[in-house]
Amino acid sequence: MIRFSGDYFDGQSSRAHPVTATFADGQLQIEGESIALTVARAQVEVVPPAGTARGVIHLPGHQELHSSDHVALAELAKLGPGSSPERWARVLEGRVIYALGALVLSVLILFAGLRWGVPAGALLASRTLPDSVDRHIGEQSLRLMEKVSLEPSTLPAARQRAISQRLAALCQQRTTHTPCPTYRLLFRDSKLFGPNALALPGGTVIVTDALVKLAQHDDEVLAVIAHELGHVQQRHSLRLALQSIGAGVILVAVTGDIGSVTDIAAGLPSLLLQNGYSRDMEREADAYALAWLDTACIPPRRFADLLGRIDQDASDTHLMSSHPGTRERIQPFQRPAACP
Asked: CA-CA distance, 47 to 3, in Å (whole number)?
């Protein structure tokens, strides 16, 4: 016999009726003031309490019995049908090894979603979204950067014009097999970014004054710009933004913090500079730059020389690296020009 107390709800009103429940011989008897109810165990659905919450017994006709007697409800639940999902859930919850296994499986699923699912979804979305979305994100990012981290260029106008005109001329003479994407080249000064260049969604390529000053030849600057044009061609910046938002959506589903999505989307410039692109994105952009330099008859070594000057402690690619190491990246560029 199982005996416990609780509150009975008749399904007609929200009033709680204090009752005493007794289970014996396959019958649940509920007794209280003006209440006498007998229900077969097969008609009862027991929802055991979770934590400090009260357990609920669902009765026919939308009636319910609520109780805080965890022990009694657990015993009553065990007497239910052997194949009920609730019983299997209670068995799994009651064994540490199963709980740990479920935790490990959940972590693996979350990791797989972030590692492969989100990038795949971002790639598909980047191929279907209109160019106007790309441009809008790029304009917003540039506006934010110009407020906090970019200043007008101090380079002589003639130097800026010379690089811009040479780039435009090289793009015009390129073959139709590897055309230059639509781009906008901007020179900006930045103490925060140092010698750097980056491509924003929509085709805006920013080159810092420090990068131009570090270069020993304009071909070195053009080589770095070619790499950024590779990012533009593949819409990598948009994909990175979409991946960040996708990861934020997953984190919201796990943590319930909806504000993180907005924070991640607004932090695209920081993502570009601090985390960089993925290994595959960097390799795609490098492959584009290498082909671009060959077509332009610019020695690929110009890219390797400037990149090595920026990262004097050239690193290798490790298993856990999010992007390829400098030493790996410059290796294909350390050869003569493809044309005389």
From this structure: 17
Distance CA 227, CA 198 (A): 9
Question: CB of 65 within 8 A of CB of 52?
Answer: no
Every domain of the chain with CATH number 2.30.29.30 lies at 2-81
Q: Note the pLDDT tens digit of each residue in 166-175.
A: 999 999 875 5
Sort 40 into a burial class: Cβ within 10 Å, 0-12 / 13-18 / 19+.
Answer: exposed
If pLDDT is split at 50, 70 and 90, which confidence band does 322 have?
very low
User: Regarding beta strands 197-199 and 35-40, do their DSSP bridges make them parallel or antiparallel, or are they unpaired?
Assistant: unpaired
pLDDT digits (tens, 9 = 90+) for 146-192: 998 999 999 999 999 999 999 999 998 755 456 789 999 999 999 98
Contact 225, 185 (CB under 8 A): yes
pTM: 0.62
d(CA 329, CA 281): 12
Structure tokens at 99: 């709980």
Instruction: Tell me the two tokens of residue 133.
Output: 């979305």
Contacts of 304 (CB under 8 A, 6+ apart): 330, 333, 334
pLDDT band, very low/low/confident/very high, at 83 (cuts 50, 70, 90) = very low
Residue showing tokens 């005493």 = 20
> Running DSSP on this structure, what letter comes out for residue 62?
G
Segment (H or E) for 281: helix 279-296
Residue 136, Ramachandran bin (φ over 0: left; ψ between -120 and 50: alpha; else beta): alpha
Angle made by CA atoms 261, 324, 296, in degrees to the nearest 5: 105
> How far apart (Å, rounded) are the C-alpha atoms in residues 41 and 26?
6
CATH number of 2-81: 2.30.29.30
